[in-house]
Amino acid sequence: MSSEIRQLQPQELWNKFADLNAVPRPSKKEERVIAFMKDFGKSLNLETIVDEVGNVIIKKPATVGMEDRTTVVLQSHLDMVHQKNNDTNFDFDTQGIAMYVDGDWVKAKGTTLGADNGLGVATIMAILESTDIEHPAIEALFTIDEETGMTGAMGLKGGLLSGGILLNLDTEEDNEIGVGCAGGIDVTATRSYEEEETPEFKIGFTITVKGLQGGHSGMQIHEGLGNANKIMNRVLFDGFENFGLRISEIDGGSLRNAIPRESHAIVAIDAIHEAAFLLEMKQQEAIIKTELKTMEPNLEIVVSKCETPEKIMDLGVQEGLTRAIYAACNGVYRMSADIPDLVETSNNVARVIVKDGNIKIGCLTRSSVESAKWDLVNTLRATFELTGCEVDASGDYPGWTPNMDSPILKVLSKIYKDMNGEEAHVAACHAGLECGILGTNYPEMDMISFGPNIKGAHSPDERAQISSAQKYWKFVLEILKQIPVK
């Protein structure tokens, strides 16, 4: 519980994290957390600004003797990804996150933890509240809606900030210093179709794909995790090829930036094929589980008899849909030729909805190379347009181009080596950070990203490492001490 979390070291960090996690803060519903941050800034008698899109800026003067140092922007995002296990009864709109300690990790009970990016927010809050931490002048920037469109960063106007250095606290490996990230864009395919009356000789089944790990569709896209939408499509395709399976409904995945963990379908087959169909589904489950046994040991494909659906999809549209999802790129499209082990371009088939005569397929495409991003967008567009869908590309945001000559990179690299006796891993990541967007209105700002170890972000397995948070906190304090003069 939160009392247990509040006893962890450093207490100033974990106390603020517990305070923050008591406030519901889903993306695009940040009214309560915006008010919380506004009240927090005013309670400290610090200049507090809420801009026209909802970003919160809190400014704190330098401590004595640090007035000649460059003003630093400390930046994290207020919203969090809301995911829960299917059997967890939890209302993200009204409840705070229920946390507990498991060895060296802080976890949540059946939901995402909100360490992404709550630990960054808590860090900044602790620094703003402190009376004994040395630091230059600080502009704390708390952005909104990072997880579902980065509209906060996009809406931040030039001129609100004067800092020359930005420290983004949204990296999830404590030995990594981030200098670049991928851009992204949402690709959404839609179409309508005619429904048919289900013939009397057919019977209904539900098919559920569950037990997958899920995870971050950028940082974990290369790990070979199962995608529930692709697995479901494979099962439906096999059922049609062998038994004339007809689709009534599909509801797969949830958030665009989360690898789909579950998918649910309602289908109909000829009653005479029931026994053979169930046997085939068992065989398919065994085959797929064998393929994914290393990464997805808890995968289940559950087939249960249900009331026969009244309507099924038009046959031609169904055939086109299943072939299009089969053909749609999912996972790594291309690795970087310039940065070892970096995913350059990828796609996540994140959401599949088929119901009441309408199809909607949502993808998130990422790339650190703008032309490659659009090449994959066009690949997906062609795939879905061939089956009669309209395809929309929206929410485009830029990547962050690495600057290996960054002055603040040199400062952080030296501090990290002095503190830990080894070199930091300087890297670009395949996630969307706000630095690239913020840089459009603040092109002269020197930016860097770092953070503590967080595993399983965007899934109910999300967890934050306690010992890593301690290491990270010391790193932050030393960085503030060593910010160069103006």
Furnish the topology, listing elements before pairings.
Blueprint: H1 2-5, H2 11-21, H3 31-43, E1 47-50, E2 56-60, E3 72-77, E4 99-102, E5 105-108, H4 115-129, E6 138-143, H5 151-155, E7 165-168, E8 176-181, E9 183-192, E10 195-197, E11 202-210, H6 228-243, E12 246-253, E13 263-270, H7 274-291, E14 300-306, E15 311-313, H8 315-327, E16 331-335, E17 343-355, E18 358-367, H9 370-385, E19 390-397, H10 407-420, E20 425-429, H11 435-441, E21 446-449, E22 454-455, E23 463-465, H12 466-481
Parallel strand pairs: 3-6, 3-7, 7-21, 8-20
Antiparallel strand pairs: 1-2, 2-6, 4-5, 5-23, 9-18, 9-19, 10-15, 11-13, 11-14, 12-13, 12-17, 16-17, 17-18, 22-23
Strand proportion, as a percent range, falls in 25-35%
CATH level-4 homologous superfamily of the largest domain: Zn peptidases
- Helical proportion, percent range: 25-40%
Estimate the mean pLDDT confidence.
96
Q: How much is the radius of gyration in Å?
A: 24 Å
Let me know the largest β-sheet: 9 strands, antiparallel
CATH architecture of the largest domain: 3-Layer(aba) Sandwich
- Through-space gap between termini: 44 Å
Total count of helical runs of at least 4 residues: 12
Low-pLDDT stretches are: none
Instruction: State the CATH topology of the largest domain.
Output: Aminopeptidase
Write down how many β-strands occur, each being a DSSP E stretch of 2 or more residues.
23
Judged by helices, strands and strand pairing, the structural class is alpha+beta
Backbone shape: elongated
* CATH class annotation of the largest domain: Alpha Beta
How many separate domains?
Answer: 2
Domain Peptidase M20 dimerisation: 208-293
InterPro entries: Peptidase_M20, Peptidase_M20_dimer, Peptidase_M20C
Keywords: Hydrolase
Pfam families: M20_dimer (PF07687), Peptidase_M20 (PF01546)
